[in-house]
């Protein structure tokens, strides 16, 4: 596994909340609502979608291209089961003393195996995903984080993942 | 339970053929948005479009492809609040109730995870998304209603002043790091 894209700078959510919401056209809304549920697997999927919503294949293609380039869609296409790709994953957390928070953030983020890291409002205030090539490497990273930060890592790998039906209508 | 899941994943992993690896490498950054996207993949793989379509369907059936869909940026659609709800539920009933929570339309991730007592007594995690703070509080309430019969009530250890709750919701206040997960070439 490779954490390919570049890490973002710490981003305050309250700040980004105010300016991120975008205005969408009727067609954009229709496509976002419909395609969250899935795209037909056939030779001309966009023609089939166009037929369902009484549009044209060309309009659908143009609209989706725009939504993707503007990053209203973060992904478009097959979502693969992360474990099938051959990696190992875990969710982990630290209870970081407030005064050390920025410093520990730097320490934790310095590991390339840290894929996501969020600050959350709890005693366990730092939650991150560790993604590695192998299960053994997860254990090594956990130990290295404990050594580096002097904090005990709450390591909670998934035991069972449930199928989800997330739908964010617009 | 964990052994079974991990074993299952190992099997899935071994079954990935060279062709499937190639398919993943070609599509993990997205399906081409063109008239005939599967023709484009077929050409790069030296396969017929029929072969690529049947490979796609086979990977879907085996769970290697979870779904083929559009994933919107939650924030850009106005879903600016998320909460990681965590629950201490009866292990015997955990699979059945976890499955029901996962089916709620506002839940994006739903997992069973190990407890670490006494610091962490929650075994079910469900991420919820909403447009307002009130909405995610309401969703937490809906999950609580669904789980009310299986929530564990633990004895409070008053001598150590530890209060053990049956559930909580952790909201994120900052993204500290975010990278994409990709298969390496």
Automatic annotation (TrEMBL), chain A:
It comes from the Bacteria. Residues 28-73 form the Siroheme decarboxylase NirL-like HTH domain. Gene3D superfamilies: 3.30.70.3460, Winged helix-like DNA-binding domain superfamily/Winged helix DNA-binding domain. The keyword Lyase applies. Probably forms a complex composed of NirD, NirL, NirG and NirH. All proteins are required for the total conversion of siroheme to didecarboxysiroheme. It comes from Colwellia demingiae. One of its GO terms (molecular function) is lyase activity. Keywords: Lyase. This is Siroheme decarboxylase NirG subunit. Residues 90-162 form the Siroheme decarboxylase AsnC-like ligand binding domain. Involved in heme d1 biosynthesis. Catalyzes the decarboxylation of siroheme into didecarboxysiroheme. Belongs to the Ahb/Nir family. PANTHER family: SIROHEME DECARBOXYLASE NIRL SUBUNIT (PTHR43413:SF1), TRANSCRIPTIONAL REGULATOR, ASNC FAMILY (PTHR43413). InterPro entries: AsnC_trans_reg2 (IPR040523), HTH-Siroheme_Decarb (IPR050684), NirdL-like_HTH (IPR053953), WH-like_DNA-bd_sf (IPR036388). Pfam families: AsnC_trans_reg2 (PF17805), NirdL-like_HTH (PF22451). It catalyses: siroheme + 2 H(+) = 12,18-didecarboxysiroheme + 2 CO2. Its EC number is 4.1.1.111. It is an enzyme of class 4 (lyase). Pathway: Porphyrin-containing compound metabolism.
From TrEMBL, chain B:
Pathway: Porphyrin-containing compound metabolism. It comes from the Bacteria. It catalyses: siroheme + 2 H(+) = 12,18-didecarboxysiroheme + 2 CO2. Residues 76-147 form the Siroheme decarboxylase AsnC-like ligand binding domain. Its EC number is 4.1.1.111. The keyword Lyase applies. Keywords: Lyase. InterPro entries: AsnC_trans_reg2, HTH-Siroheme_Decarb, NirdL-like_HTH. It holds the Pfam family AsnC_trans_reg2. It is an enzyme of class 4 (lyase). Residues 21-66 form the Siroheme decarboxylase NirL-like HTH domain. One of its GO terms (molecular function) is lyase activity. Belongs to the Ahb/Nir family. Probably forms a complex composed of NirD, NirL, NirG and NirH. All proteins are required for the total conversion of siroheme to didecarboxysiroheme. Involved in heme d1 biosynthesis. Catalyzes the decarboxylation of siroheme into didecarboxysiroheme. This is siroheme decarboxylase.
């Amino acid at each position: 596994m490779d954490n390919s894209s570049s890490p973002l700078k710490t981003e305050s959510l309250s700040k980004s909340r105010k300016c991120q919401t975008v205005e969408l056209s009727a067609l954009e809304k229709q496509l976002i609502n419909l395609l969250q549920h899935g795209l037909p697997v056939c030779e001309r999927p966009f023609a089939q979608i166009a037929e369902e919503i009484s549009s044209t294949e060309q309009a659908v293609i143009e609209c989706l291209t725009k939504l993707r380039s503007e990053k209203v869609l973060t992904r478009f296409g097959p979502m693969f089961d992360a474990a099938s790709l051959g990696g190992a994953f875990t969710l982990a957390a630290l209870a970081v003393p407030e005064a050390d928070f920025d410093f520990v953030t730097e320490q934790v983020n310095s590991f390339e195996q840290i894929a996501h890291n969020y600050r959350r409002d709890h005693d366990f205030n730092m939650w991150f995903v560790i993604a590695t090539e192998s299960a053994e490497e997860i254990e090594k990273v956990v130990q290295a984080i404990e050594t580096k930060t002097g904090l005990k890592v709450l390591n909670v790998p998934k035991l069972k993942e449930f199928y989800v039906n997330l739908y964010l209508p617009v | 339970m964990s052994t079974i899941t991990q074993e299952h994943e190992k099997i899935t992993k071994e079954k990935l053929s060279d062709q499937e690896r190639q398919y993943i490498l070609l599509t993990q950054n997205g399906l081409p948005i063109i008239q005939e996207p599967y023709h484009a993949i077929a050409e790069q793989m030296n396969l017929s479009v029929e072969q690529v379509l049947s490979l796609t369907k086979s990977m879907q059936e085996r769970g290697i492809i979870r779904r083929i869909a559009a994933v919107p940026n939650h924030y850009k659609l106005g879903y600016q609040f998320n909460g990681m709800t965590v629950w201490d539920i009866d292990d015997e009933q955990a699979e059945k109730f976890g499955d029901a929570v996962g089916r709620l339309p506002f839940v994006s991730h739903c997992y069973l995870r190990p407890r670490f007592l006494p610091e962490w007594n929650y075994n079910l995690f469900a991420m919820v998304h909403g447009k307002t703070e009130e909405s995610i509080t309401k969703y937490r309430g809906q999950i609580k209603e669904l789980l009310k019969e299986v929530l564990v009530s633990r004895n409070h250890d008053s001598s150590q002043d530890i209060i053990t709750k049956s559930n909580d919701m952790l909201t994120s206040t900052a993204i500290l790091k975010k990278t994409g997960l990709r298969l390496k070439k």
